[in-house]
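Re: beginner question about structure tokens

> Can someone show what the tokenized structure looks like for a real chain? I only ever see the sequence side.

Sure, here's an example I had lying around. Input first:
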Amino acid sequence: MRFALDVCALIKKLPRDEPGPTVKRQLARSSTGLAFNYRASCRARSHKEFTSKIGVVAEEADEAQGWLEFIEAATLIYDPSLKRLVIESTELTKIASASYGTARAKEREERGRRRAERQCRSSRERDADAV
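And the corresponding structure tokens:
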């Protein structure tokens, strides 16, 4: 949440003429989306729901990072907090992406385990029918 609040403070300093308003809107959406989708992922009712939400968090973090890098590259503003927010967004993107990868791997692992259990059950049932 702190990242989103810091970004909202930064976007107030963006210029009123284009591309300022577009960047403001997009960056506000991605940074707050990151915060609130992370919050939702923490309250997920299933592992599948968690995986879905953390995937959205990774996408929003990447988008926020992109917009912050755009502000920096286009020199839309000079603000000491911009560099810190670019670094923080990069870290958040890495963390969320790694979490998403781990969650997906665990889902694949679980699917494989369930498939093996079904095969074992059907094999035992065939053996029982043969007797």
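Each token stands for a local structural state, so reading them left to right follows the chain. The mean pLDDT is 89.
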